Amino acid sequence: MSVLGGLLEAILAAPFELGPRGSDRRRDRHLLSERRARCGIRAVTGRVLDMGSEWSVGICVISTGRIVFTPRFGIVGDRDVDVLEVLSSDSHFQPSPSESHDGVDLGLGDVVTYVIRTGRGDLLWALPVPVAEPASALLFSD
Description:
alpha+beta, 8-stranded antiparallel beta sheet, 3 helices, about 25% helix
């Protein structure tokens, strides 16, 4: 029954997934099935894991308690981020246009931004709205 339900959902959703935004949603869902996500990341203040307060955008691989971030622009080199806690605050834990992030268009569409606590400081982690919640949940799943 779940296969039939999935097929029905795909058929009903197809007309809404045409165009660039739709292809991004399909890509995001595909990446999420591989425990990966398009994202932006930066330090809240100062420098954390050799990242400053400027946004870097790329792909992250999410495992339990860890994000491995591979930048497409911004910082140079992959970053292994051991996540102690994912925090939310009213100022960051809301869907918002990517353009509102310090005036920088992250190229991710509308995003949800989480505060990630690491052993070396706090980071902001911006994810596309459709996959933000399930992607963040992967950090604490087995």
